## 1
Amino acid sequence: MPSRFALDGPLAGAGFGGRVTLSDGTGAEAFVRAAEAEPRALPQALAECGGLLLVPGMQAMAENPALLLRLSRIFGPEIENYRENGTAANMVHETVPEILVVANIPPVSRQPPPLPDPPLTEDGSLPVQYPHRHGWHTDQSFRRPPPDISLFLAVLPVPQGQGQTLFADATAAYAALPEATKRRIEHLDGLHVSSSAGRRREAVRAGTPPRALGPLEQPQRQPLVRVHPVTGQRALYMCEHGQMDWQEGPIVGLEPGPDGEGARLLDALMAHATQREFVHAHEWSTGDLVIWDNRCTLHAATWFDAAKEQRVMWRTTVSGNPGAAYAGEAKSWLAA
Ligand SMILES: O=C(O)CCC(=O)C(=O)O
Ligand SMILES: [Fe+2]
């Protein structure tokens, strides 16, 4: 049966990602119905495109969040409930606890990251590469098992030219590593922790005494090289300043701390993975839904003028297929 979805790729600037549209309909309701009628089509498109899909024209989801949840369910069996995972209550959608609200207006009031320094690269383009660009991460890597896929809806984006979201192809980045590096990192684990744990790189460097962490917020080991359960491909899996444990990590078994051997390896891998050739910078339009696979992509938020602009984005996260490395594990963030 021919698919009713059309897929174009790659997305601008990078060698991965695809744009999906419905050939015989418009709007979120028609799109979600078609996705439910052909439930393998979109997950397959996501896998084929390296873990990044853009679905434009989904603005009706903002009026009818159930549509976002229905589409999320196509990508996996479990949709995270943000009321049950320790997320600050002001970031959770008032009536739909599966939606995390990323916004600079109350009650969320989350500020964007600072402008990179300098604000543009030498050739006048948007900085994407670490360490010129900071904030690269994969969602909730501080939990085991971590979530598979995130869906991010532009309810109220800021004007183009600011507030982009950057995506890096961690599969292509892994494949481009020298063989000796691949061998060196094959069995290493990163040590991940929530940015609220007080183990950020700057905090540790400043000598701030670490706070005691409760049993449900302990740092979690994650393979530095993840084998994707659907495609079988290897991808780099890591975060930088905010989501690694810079006290005892960032890499298990290597000299710890913000300037140790583990830090040097992570810096080198992060700079490698975020080279411009691996990165797509998404300029948001209202109703864009971007779906990314946290198992094989990295992403970063960028600066926008929060004094002038309001930005409201909704995110859901889907889990249930983290791969063999997590087989049978209980959730690290829930009491047994
Ligand atoms: O605000 C953005 O552009 C990205 C936010 C983000 O990283 C997320 O919601 O997972
Ligand atoms: Fe994120």
Note: The chain has a mean pLDDT of 97.
## 2
Amino acid sequence: MCRIMLTLTLLGLSIGLVANAFPTQQSGNGKNWVVIVAGSNGWHNYRHQADACHAYQIVHKNGIPDKQIVVMMYDDLATNKQNPTPGVVINRPSGTNVYKGVPKDYTGNAVTPDNFLAVLKGDSASTQLGSGKVLKSGPNDHVFVYISARGAPGLLAFPNDELYAADLMDVIEYMHKNKKYKKLVFYIDACDSGSMMTKLPDDINVYATTATNSYACYYDEKRNTYLGDWYSVNWMENSDVEDLSKETLMRQFKVVRSKTRHVMQFGNKTLANMKVKAFQGNAKARPAPPMTLQPVVEPGLIPSPDVPMAILNRTATAKGHVYQLRSHLKGIEQLKQNMQKVVQCVTGVNRENPKILNVKMDKMQHQCYKDAVSHYKKHCFRWFSPEVRIARPSVPHPKDSPALTQASPALIQPPGLPSSDPAPRSPQL
Ligand SMILES: *[C@@H]1O[C@H](CO)[C@@H](O)[C@H](O)[C@H]1NC(C)=O
Ligand SMILES: *[C@@H]1O[C@H](CO)[C@@H](O)[C@H](O)[C@H]1NC(C)=O
């Protein structure tokens, strides 16, 4: 029974490949704390780290000291060999360098869900590999958490691992019980990010907004990658140009919602009447002077799961490597077929297109779901492996450029599948 349920949810995963009272504005004698996370690595995921760096610049220029800002990002962009401007990371066309001064608290393999949860709990002793910087927040403090990542139902992807909604919810409850904040605000940009917050209570002073469906934007011809995510750049560009001591979270939410569908709010929505500065700035510091941004005429939106394909399409066409494109499409087709076989194998439904493949089920059993995800990842394919996720052709083409043929990690056949099948490809969430 559990096995079937598991598979059903996993399918969702692979297919998803998816005010009355005005609260006080100041945190009193309290402090502002910020946690910023980019949940991916690799050049084709450039946008998540670019978003994170930009978020740091906003809270930094609005007076929150570095010792109250924890940044988690892989940090493989500035020195990446695909970076035509070493040391520079931008988050909009012709944008300024957002990489400057970003604290390196948790980089590389320290960007883990466990470290993230320890940071929120203020549990420095449990952190590994990073600086050990954690929230030291108390009952008078405001905490702002921003995450830009890939996601799937009930989870957010970190570079090598996943953060599960239920674990995040446990830690929020812990923070509430242990008086780790006065008010807590989450902004999450990832596919299916709404599913991270559906269980958020409305009576613990937490407010969250999510992108829910994530779109990449601002393709950069020189860098061959997308510079930002649409939900993210919309709230951040709003924070850049507005006076944050006047702008409210609600207005910021509406600005974002007017540009992207599917944005959602959770928790205590009365908190949205608070000023943005109460979370993205220091109450005692003067807010940063508003910037002027040149409007971007065509943001070039594309659903996040299609990003690797879109990058390949653009670069392959530019370089005349249509062969690469075809082989990637073949890889996706192969993946679909393998997925169908897994479903047939587990459910015993021997039809070409089992209905299950087209529905997303609600997840009931947290541990069961985790086990299933980990089993699937181990035995079917590792979708979050650090290697370039662009599918590699079965027979390398002599003219293939090394950048495009970088091998996928060893992929293991799903159990029960004929071994003659080419290995399935990692989809992008
Ligand atoms: C929501 O927040 C407001 C402002 O802080 C507070 O007055 C209200 O009691 C909260 N609602 C719940 C259900 O806790
Ligand atoms: C690749 O790009 C071309 C032109 O921009 C477009 O017509 C085509 O549909 C794209 N192919 C895929 C598979 O996305």
Note: The two ends are 27 Å apart (CA to CA).
